[in-house]
């Protein structure tokens, strides 16, 4: 597709949209779908047709609006795309009322207040199109300034300039470790090899995390555009998206998006009339957490057993089939189009000194507003949990936030006023990770939490290296004894010794970070460990302590 | 082999000793050339290194991370330390983990006296295991006419997998399952005796560090292993 054709397509779409007076957007991402948003969408479509309004009101399915807890969410917008009202918990039976309210008095009983901090305090870059565009139509993405950044790169910027812009933005990898994205791109760009690859890591395996899923389901073209720009900047011509098979909707929308982009000539050969070629394929993960680790992921794409290998060499030097390979996370790629559109300096103006831009967090656990939020880096943890998250339900008391999934740690109350960015989270012993935030209140037992994550690591360990394979198993056994009330002080010392061993000697990040939940809970909630061991009591009342006699026999 | 790296000459220090090396050599091979012994378990001369056992970890000045000597290439100016108290401690604990993992009963083992795991324990001064033994219930496969596989003694070093795939070219062995449930298997987890891909060459028997694979009818004294793999591998490289 040439630039003129792209503009033509935009005009056609804008013209077509002008005919409508209102649009009713129904969230059809996984969260709302689970509360039957598909039926809501059907009912609304039928209702509009029945009332003969299908020339005036456009009913469409869109991506995630964020407040998954209140789904299915429905939004009414006017011709200028300004929001009239958002409704929550809309079922098929509400269709008549909802349609009748377009441009009129809103249905008070269904209104979802969007002036609450959960919505008002968000800054949307990655999620800017989520909930606004139909993820299954490339036209809508294009009208929302989609593929404009790619066009600009191909027409105006040399590959080195693209890398420079990404470096200037200060963007760091959103897959967990926070590696500077510009530096990674530059390394791959410099590598001397005819064949290079770009891989998008969409394996998202942390329990409780669904940021990447939401982006893929709500705005798949954004990820494709980010990958295409990366391919242009680094000299790659083939891309893979490694997506977990547990995300069938994301896979379907990705495949659909790839087909559409190929059809209009945005992917494929001679993109936008230039000599740039880039094709993308989706590969499915088979449900192994460790396959999110980049070298294991590459083995898996190659058709081998998904186990990590020692680095160096890093994938940027020798990756897929031995070729230089750029591997980035979904959210990392999703940040790329706006950075190229608005400039690296714009992106760098948001966030903290060393962590730029925004971060999408998945709020889960003991918090009133569970769902997705995108906030600027550096927002206080307290604000995220209590203002956006709406605090702890049922008048319970806050205890800790678990970030970074099984590789992260539990952050206690005393750090609530910490600014959330890569470095400050690392300082308190946890990691930013991919953005999962599990909030815990006084009813959670921290030893039990540590045990849960150790069990996860034990069953997800690939089994290649000894410290992780046997170490996680032994640590889990000790933690079981703690929650039983039968652990001895020597066993606690051994637990600490194994934490150090795994951190220092494991082959990959899974084993190296597996001790984090144990280490942080031991550091900040030692009293709970002591209560189980010496007091034979679980303060939160979660663990079943074996009675004293039982222990004796 | 990486030809650009192979043509580079680098100098480095291992335990204070100045060493010269080619850029495509590992820390382990340079150390051994210079008479410095780094303990290893999964490494086997002539096979691709995988960095699985973590026994060979060394410290490199300037990096907080430890590196597996068997699978890390030397670089110019590197300063390697191979036997610090910290490394000795880690190695011993890793061995303890291995002994606790399966059922290693040396006194009744056919490899008693010829076992690399046992030898490593003696070498590193491991006298007892502080971790509880897991005593898993594991299978013994005696269906092959000449050999036996005993899961109780396997340390998952993957030497059998590599020798069979890389040297014999049969790829009978592989690993199945994850984490503590991982097992060495023949073909698609079929009885070894039913394997149509096994050539009965016996290479796996000779590379197995323990008696997880052994030859039927041999007594404990006869379980001596031959090392021929590095020679075969070297010859292949010449004719490639
Ligand atoms: C055990 C393990 C699991 C991982 N899982 C994921 C994952 O699900 N998604 C992801 O993007 N990165 C994951 N990573 C990080 C990747 O290895 C890699 O660093 C990342 O994809 C790089 O992308 P980025 O630079 O954009 O963050 C995982 C790492 C480890 C050690
Ligand atoms: S640390 Fe765990 S997951 Fe990583 S290679 Fe070792 S056994 Fe596999
Ligand atoms: S059977 Fe022997 S060679 Fe094979 S993995 Fe087990 S210990 Fe290693
Ligand atoms: S010998 Fe190097 S990790 Fe096993």
Mind sketching the topology for me?
The complex is a heterodimer of chains A (553) and B (240).
Chain A lengths: L2 H16 L3 E6 L2 H4 L3 H14 L6 E6 L11 E5 L4 E5 L7 H6 L16 H4 L17 H6 L4 H9 L2 H11 L11 H10 L6 E6 L8 H8 L1 H15 L3 E7 L3 H16 L15 E7 L8 H8 L23 E5 H13 L1 H5 L9 E8 L5 E6 L4 H8 L9 E6 L5 E4 L9 H6 L8 E6 L4 H15 L5 H19 L4 H17 L3 H5 L2 H9 L1 H8 L14 H5 L1
Parallel strand pairs in A: 1-2, 5-6, 5-8, 6-7, 9-13
Antiparallel strand pairs in A: 1-3, 3-4, 9-10, 11-12, 11-13
Helix pairs in contact in A: 7-11, 7-14, 8-9, 8-11, 10-11, 10-12, 11-14, 18-19, 18-22, 19-20, 22-23
Chain B lengths: L2 H4 L2 E6 L2 E6 L4 H7 L23 E4 L5 E3 L10 E3 L3 H17 L14 H8 L16 E2 L5 E4 L8 H10 L4 E4 L6 E4 L16 H5 L5 E3 L13 H11 L1
Parallel strand pairs in B: 1-5
Antiparallel strand pairs in B: 1-2, 3-4, 3-5, 6-7, 7-10, 8-9
The complex binds flavin mononucleotide (FMN), iron/sulfur cluster (2 copies) and FE2/S2 (inorganic) cluster.
The site of one iron/sulfur cluster has 15 residues of chain A, from helix 19 and helix 21.
Low-confidence stretches of chain A: none
How many individual β-strands of chain A?
13
- Helical segment tally of chain A? 24
CATH architecture of the largest domain in chain B: 2-Layer Sandwich
Enumerate the strands of the largest sheet of chain A in spatial order, edge to edge or round the barrel. Answer: 10-9-13-11-12
Tell me, briefly, the overall form of chain B: globular
**Which sequence of SSEs, written as H and E, runs from N to C of chain B?**
HEEHEEEHHEEHEEHEH
Mean pLDDT of chain B: 94
User: Strand count, sense and closure of the main sheet of chain A?
Assistant: 5 strands, mixed
Task: Give the integer mean of the pLDDT values of chain A.
Answer: 93
